[in-house]
Amino acid sequence: MASWKKFTAIAALLSVVVGLTGCGAAPTTKIFEAFEKASSAEVNVTAALETLKTLEDKDEKQYINILDQGKTDNRNVQTLIDNTNKALEERKQAIEQVKVHLDDARSQMGELDKAIAKLKDEELKKQAEQAYTAYVKRYDTFKALHEKYGQWLEREQFIYDELKSQNTKLKSITTGISERNEVYRQVEELKTQFNDYTTQFNTLKSDFYKGAGLQVTKTEGNQDDNAEQQEG
Amino acid sequence: MVDRGRVTVGKRRRRSRKKFIGRTILFLLFVAIGIGIYAAGKSLLGTVSASGSDLIVTEVATFASAAKEKEIPKEFNGMTRKVAYLTFDDGPSKYSNDMMDLLKQHDIKATYFMLGDNMNTYPDAVKRMVEEGHYPGLHSMTHDFNKLYKSGGSGNFIKEFQEAQGIVENLTGFKPTLIRAPYGSAPQIGESFRKDIADAGFKMWDWTLDSLDWKFIGQPNRILEQIKGTLTADVEVILLHDRQQTLEALPSIIEYIQSKGYEFEVYDPNAHFVCNFHHDKRL
Ligand SMILES: [Zn+2]
User: Which residues constitute the signal peptide according to the record (chain B) (predicted)?
Assistant: First the structure.
């Protein structure tokens, strides 16, 4: 008789335990994991972005050199222009790298609307929603930025082809530069937008974690470890 | 636990066996409760670690910018490009349409610096200007020296240009940023005044060649003579006005400038260059 009672008690407890663990993680966990999986999938983006910056800076300096040394004769700057073209190719690769990582990060994030809708606390739901929206907008902005960046590189290529050509005309160089500057400005605007959404996402997800009572330590994106593996 | 069980074997076998089962079940219960509490905490709050150490989160990265606007070369591969900018102040006026007809005939795009009131009087001229590729620059609302420069700050000046900018934008959908200060930027516009203009998002052009057309009423030839005597630089920004004598002199002015090897250009925000008396790079 007594063993029956015990058995019933165990069964009841087991069902509680199973209820808490077995039937899928709570929305907070799911959202946290999605946010951090996506964020840590971006760790290698930092390096690609740094490469882009270095190459943009290099192009800036090379261009001034080309104009200066090619003033009287552009045969003086053929090698310089070839080097600059190589740097354009590297830039193309770097921006593609960024795209690969951000695409991957986006798919790691998944669709969170359902998980967010399950949050009971209204304030927490709002925080999660805002963070998720900022992330999605950031990704969409990147898609536009990636396309514009490609156009930018094409315009750069056009200018260097013109500067290299033996039959170059100042008029077509001028037109090429004007068109390049226009696309460059659009890219800069998109970069600003992207960066705004980045700040928003970083801040909003941090607010969300705080609201959910999670104790967190931030990294600058140089940690390769998934947040889950960091549990003590 | 199992060892302790073994020690008790032999003495009051049945009872101890019962005890053993009971203890084992209790132990399992505690373990289960422990797991349950841990799992409940985890699933409700995220991943709260038993030892209290923090979760690591990663911040996502931003883009840096190292590129700049590319400058347009005046010389390259032994070539020098001579460029003339025809700029017309104080319009639009009743002469604007005839002037634009003339410019169209010569396939020339010009840069206008217009006054707010005149834009309200001749809105169709402003629209045509933008449609035909001229630049609709700004020249304040009132052209009033005291109002613009004698109030002790840049407030009135900026406000007038913003208002004029709004008029062009309403009429054409294009928001011009290039302005020309009435009476030029020197000496009345000082250092901090210029900073305010730049901070308001404007660029400011003066000119490199003054045709003095405004004072040669009825003497279009004098305007041409003035230009002939002063056209020297590879890039010339030529000050003209939207007036009758200027319209009359325009065909001969165009012909002369072209004969000197110049090409005509219109202001292009994507190919902006500094052209103010102060050589202020912010503008
Ligand atoms: Zn004026």
Answer: none
Which CATH topology does B76-271 take? TIM Barrel (3.20.20)
The model's pTM is 0.70
B240 close to B88: Cβ distance less than 8 angstroms: yes
Q: Is B242 annotated as catalytic?
A: no
Q: Which fold has domain A35-211?
A: Four Helix Bundle (Hemerythrin (Met), subunit A) (1.20.120)
Cα–chain center distance at B2: 79
CB B247 within 8 A of CB B99: yes
CA distance B275 to chain A (A): 18
Which ipTM was obtained for this model? 0.80
Chain B nearest-CA distance from A25, in A, is 5
Domain boundaries, chain B: 1-48, 76-271
Best of B63, B71, B79, B263 to mutate (most A CBs within 10 Å, chain A): B63
Domain segments of chain A as ranges: 35-211
| Residues B182-189: contacts with CB under 8 Å, at least 24 apart | B182/B139, B182/B140, B182/B143, B182/B144, B182/B145, B182/B148, B183/B145, B184/B277, B185/B276, B185/B277, B185/B278, B186/B277, B186/B278, B188/B145, B188/B148, B188/B149, B189/B149, B189/B278
* pLDDT tens profile B165-192: 999 999 999 999 999 999 999 999 999 9
